[in-house]
Amino acid sequence: MAAGFKAPRTIYRKWAHHSQGEFCILYSMSQDAMISRKDVLKGLVLGLGGLAVPSLGLAAWQNPAPASSSAITLDDLKSFAKIAGLKMTDEELNQVLDEVRQAPAGYAMLRTQPPANGLQPSSVFRVPGVSPDPRPRISVRVSSGPMLSNPSDEDLAFATVAELGALLRAKEVTSVQLTRLALNRMKRWGEPLKCVVALLEERALQQAERLDAESRAGKWRGPLHGIPYGLKDLFSARGAPTQWGTAAFQGQIIDQDAAVVEKLEAAGAILVAKVSLGALAMNDNWFGGRTKNPWNPTQGSSGSSAGSACSVAAGLVPFAIGTETSGSIVSPSHRCRVVGFRPTFGSVSRHGAMALSWSMDKVGPICRSAEDPALVLAALLGADPRDPGSVSRSFVYAPRKDLKGQKWGLLGRPDPKAQSLLEAAGVQFQPWTAPPLNPALGAIIACEAAAVFDEITRNGRLSLVTENEWPQIFRAARFVPAVEYLQLERARTLLIQAYSKAFEGLDGVLAPDHAVATIYPMNLAGFPQLLLPWGANDRGTEQSVSLLGSPLSEPNLIAAGALLQRSTDFHRRRPDLTKI
Length: 580
Hints:
Elements: E1 10-12, H1 37-45, H2 58-62, H3 74-84, H4 90-110, E2 123-125, E3 138-140, H5 153-157, H6 161-169, H7 175-193, E4 196-199, H8 201-216, E5 228-232, H9 259-267, E6 270-275, E7 285-286, E8 289-290, E9 292-293, E10 296-300, H10 306-313, E11 320-324, H11 330-336, E12 339-342, E13 362-367, H12 372-380, E14 395-397, E15 407-410, H13 416-424, E16 428-431, H14 442-452, H15 454-459, H16 470-477, H17 482-502, E17 508-512, H18 519-525, E18 529-536, E19 542-548, H19 554-566
Parallel strand pairs: 3-14, 5-6, 5-11, 15-16, 15-17
Antiparallel strand pairs: 1-2, 4-6, 7-8, 9-10, 11-13, 12-13, 12-18, 17-19, 18-19
Helix pairs in contact: 7-8, 10-11, 14-16, 17-18
């Protein structure tokens, strides 16, 4: 192996289940039928060797259908070599011309049974230092402030998860009451804000009634018992369409609950609505319009968890589930002035969620307070065999009085008040610089997304995705050579190593706003981030602070965020919805 290069952070895993269109083929060959190593390697080069299509036997593997691409010429190879930055003579190109002409037949065989959206490659991304915990411990204890006294509906609408839980346990409110409040606010503001895709009124009220019956009987499922929430419409849910934000999938029905819905239902949370996302998880434009920022309705709410952030900011639900691949939680949370939480990659199962990038997609909550994400994450954690990227891990959180002895990095120029508050809590700061990012690494998300949506690129439905630039990105990704893609993955390994080294000896990093320069590289690396609203500047533009951490450091980030919020009221402020 060349010095300075490492293998990509992917681990080959044997598939042990055959759900969602996954399949395998097992066969044995007699000695007479065995093919030579040379033939195997040749088949692999031609894209035929690893094929597993039940309807095609070994004979078809050895004798693929006649190629329909004999029109591939020497000039075509020269053009490709130019894209790849290769220098080959005509003689060298002529030597491979026949094999290249045969390759499309093998690729066509791959497409005889298009894989389901959720089917992942057998090489699974792993964050260094995050290995399965055989005995994961999950424990969360949040601050206990004074209970809300005689809260109005408006007070309830903007209360935290912890506050609503206290009211429910004290029998001051009921699950049905909170659910009806959320549904009514969704009906009132969902259309003006363009944030609601589908109300699940009947399902929500039935569940709320069951939960109230349980609470009357003294049964409590946990801190989320009876709490309404919104779900980004890239997760499937029974009784609702799952349309991924674009006309290309408008009307799509996936009539099953995603893993996060299963987990939250078991914890007692009540799904009241599917909320908007930018088309195929980009920006805030979807087939229903542009999701608005409740603080400034002339702006979009940013994306792609546009409806999740908007609905929490507007007091429609106390928390919502979003996803992040490269900023899709922290960016709309910054714009809408709510708390956004991106956990370590692999913490939450993505089963039932639209795949965009298998090695980067993450599930996380958008909430009002820094501690609320701890309550939600605790309910979502756990390895899921349906998502090979998920891992079992521990998560233990309790509030802290101080952060004495902690060392943090300081990125850029975050608000001085945030720095001084953490210093008063005992933090020692030192300047911190993010490792450099090779711009070419942007091809990783592009190639993975293009592979996910290969079918609509080929069948023409991609033309229905008019809300953003995905069509251009998917098409451009087809011209990234496979060898260069693997080289990019190796460079990604070096980037992860650089970030791991940059965090050595640090308990966290404080950064301004959504730490835009680190969004893509830290998503590539799978590191966590907690974003807190920090009011607005003199121009009225939203401000935030971000707490960045190494893998599995979320409890400390949340503790630091809670300390900041105890001395501020930015998360308590409410937008004026009369301007909508």
